[in-house]
Specification:
Order of helices and strands: EEEHEEHEHHHEHEHEEHEHEEHEH
Structural class: alpha/beta
Largest sheet: 6 strands, mixed
Oligomer: single chain
CATH superfamily of the largest domain: P-loop containing nucleotide triphosphate hydrolases
Helix content: 25-40%
Shape: elongated
Distance between the termini: 26 Å
Number of domains: 2
Strand order of the largest sheet: 6-7-8-3-9-10
Strand content: 25-35%
CATH class of the largest domain: Alpha Beta
CATH architecture of the largest domain: 3-Layer(aba) Sandwich
CATH topology of the largest domain: Rossmann fold
Number of helices: 11
Amino acid sequence: MIRVRGLRKRYGRVTALDDLSITVPAGAIYGFIGQNGAGKTTTLRVLSTLLPPDGGEAEVAGADVLRRPHEVRRVMGYMPDFFGVYDDLKVGEYLEFYASLHGVRGSAAASLRDSLLDLVDLGPKVDEYVENLSRGMQQRLCLARALVHDPQVLLLDEPASGLDPVARVEMRELLKELGRMGKTILISSHILSELADLCTHVGVIVSGKLVREGPMRELLWAAEWPSYLMRVLREEERAATVLEQVPGVGTVETADDGIRFRCEGGAEVAATALAAVVRAGIPVVRFAELENSLESTFLELARNGV
């Protein structure tokens, strides 16, 4: 549904996108993860036809963003990270205005307004002024605006940014409902724990480059390869070497807090690894399993850039 190949974009001397390629399957809820300045917003602006790239290709529902921008806009709804609302309009008037921009007026616009407000749980607010809504309600109203022409694809830039915990849960449930309706959704976010429960697919971007992409369950392979921390009294480098030689032990890294490593075989391999270090005569002062999560996986990818 969304295909990006070799996308490049520079702002002066700053490279925002460096040969970026991503693929978002039809019907996916795709989490686009990256630190601030990684290139997430630039990518969404290119896909929404608001920003021309310096090179590469980008398609939305088979339409090229440069050659066929009007077709892209017909099938795409975009919710930017900084949204604009008209404070002197009522909620219903706000949606009717955007419906008119898409040629929907009169009773059809009123029906569309009511159905969208029901979808985002703002029906009782139809006669409220936009400025009186909470931030979470304004976010949901802007999402309704992006849905006014019934797009196949949604591009959402930090949709939960600035929301309190309750509003974030409401937004997450709304996005799940849109996924069940068959929408293809690309979400840019750094609230990683929220994405783990929401997304079907994920891509990790670091300094304008994609470093990992695939189904969410594949990115969270760390849950099947538990991580452990070992702290030794001395000979840390030799302890790391001993661990690397134990069958079933994966990546071994020396960090500030000790030696971190993964075990393909779980607790049994971890016990074997601990015994191997002790047999080598190296005193172990701490040994513990680490909690694995989307955050820890992302931080490892961002740190290593691979």
